[in-house]
Specification:
heterodimer; A: 216 residues; mainly alpha; B: mainly alpha; Cytochrome Bc1 Complex, Chain D, domain 2; elongated
């Protein structure tokens, strides 16, 4: 009976095993990086907003404190997006005929909410709480970057589980003095680990890595 | 196809479909997160406004002194609770968040927003306001005044803490050397002699 496979098929079979191995590793590696890439996490990507609100103008330029607008951030899980009235505190008088701000005035007149597009958006099966962080020496800019330099808000970090855990395992790498939490331009000092260890003790921080911390 | 393999194929399809469906269901669960929109209501607001007249348990504002800064309709001139160091620090912090953008860090009425074209905010160091009763300041925060919007989002205790800090600012602008306790006079003398040129330039 004639051979179906010529002798060279042996070499081919061996080569294809190696090729399959390489392919699997590359594909795995590609998926590993793709899954963490800004393309998937939408890091540093601005969203279309009804009004081009600029933190750079309001925070960087005028030095308005985060809590003037995000009033709930110290007390509740959600930081909260300010209501129209907060904008009108100033814009009833400043730039009060600017067409850019017409949606704000419209909303103030007819009582309909401004529909902002959410930028940092965790999946609903993960639980996050602002008050648990900002009252324990975790600065806004650690998680949201230099907001005072953002003309439109973007998401600074991946917000993936490994990112949360990186800090939950080693809070001393990130903790800062409580009176610096709202300082958007805070610079990490050279002796961070030393200072961090002190603050971790002072604020009584514990590594929080059990699943039910964030999946509840 | 045998019945057995058909049910196996069906089960496989079900597993794949469930696997694909699962992901988004868990990401976007039907519950409403803070401030999220909802199509259930005509105005699409997930966060519902309170029915008019609703009062949460323990939140009835029956203490006229604490909640309006008045007693029998007249502005009061004392605090509803003692002001200690912690309250004063709290007042400073809240003042810098909510008032300094317009009134400036010292209360002179020339904050950043005024510099960008807002109506000049009240100068706390004019005689009329220096002699004004404390309840009046509370009332301006709660209800606004002229071109100034109300700041009802500030908690009642914090409003009083801010009032205390404004009083401290007013006193600080008219402080005399005699006001410094004798035990720390030397410190003050030293600071003044060193800082005199800078202080003069700031005025």
């Amino acid at each position: 009976m004639a051979q179906i496979f010529p002798k060279s098929a042996n070499a081919l079979a061996q080569a294809s095993i190696i090729a399959a191995g390489i392919l699997a590793v590359t594909a795995g590696g590609a998926l590993y990086y793709l899954q963490r890439s800004p393309y998937v996490t939408r890091q540093h990507e601005t969203r279309e907003q009804p009004i081009p609100f600029s933190h750079q103008h309001h925070v960087g330029g005028m030095g308005v404190d985060c809590r003037y607008c995000h009033t709930a951030v110290e007390k509740s899980a959600s930081a909260g997006i300010p209501p129209t009235k907060t904008c009108m505190n100033c814009h009833s008088q400043i730039w009060n005929d600017s067409p850019t701000l017409e949606p704000v005035r419209q909303s103030f007149r007819d009582g309909k909410s401004i529909v902002w597009t959410k930028v940092n958006d965790l999946p609903d099966f993960a639980y996050f709480n602002h008050s648990a962080h900002v009252n324990k020496g975790m600065g806004c800019s650690t998680c949201h970057g230099r907001v005072d330099l953002q003309p439109l808000a973007w998401q600074e970090h991946s917000l993936q589980m490994e990112w949360c855990l990186e800090c939950h395992r080693n809070p001393e790498k990130f903790v800062r003095p409580q009176d610096q939490v709202f300082n958007a331009a805070y610079v990490t000092p050279a002796n961070q680990i030393e200072l961090g260890k002190e603050l971790v003790k002072k604020y009584g921080l514990k590594p929080r890595t059990s699943c039910s911390t964030c999946h509840r | 196809m045998s019945a057995r393999s058909r049910s196996l194929a069906l089960a496989l399809v079900a597993v794949v479909a469930a696997g694909a469906g699962c992901r988004q269901d868990m990401h976007d669960q039907p519950r409403i997160k803070a401030q999220a929109a909802s199509d259930f209501w005509r105005d699409h607001r997930g966060a519902r406004p309170l029915v008019e007249g609703t009062i949460a348990r323990g939140h009835l504002r029956e203490d006229e002194y604490l909640h309006t800064g008045r007693e029998m309709g007249q502005f009061v001139n004392a605090f509803p609770f003692p002001i200690d160091r912690a309250r004063m620090e709290r007042g400073r912090e809240r003042y810098n968040i909510h008032c300094a953008p317009c009134h400036g860090a010292t209360g002179a009425g020339n904050g950043m927003v005024v510099q960008r074209g807002y109506r000049a905010a009240g100068n706390f160091h004019q005689d009329r306001l220096r002699n004004e009763r404390l309840g009046y300041f509370y009332d301006v925060i709660a209800n606004g005044f002229g071109a100034m919007p109300a700041y009802a989002e500030i908690a009642v205790e914090d409003r009083w803490a801010i009032v205390a800090y404004i009083r401290a600012l007013q006193l600080s602008q008219h402080a005399r050397l005699e006001d410094v306790p004798a035990s720390r006079r030397a410190e003050a003398d030293k600071a003044l002699s060193g800082a005199a040129p800078a202080a003069a330039a700031a005025h």
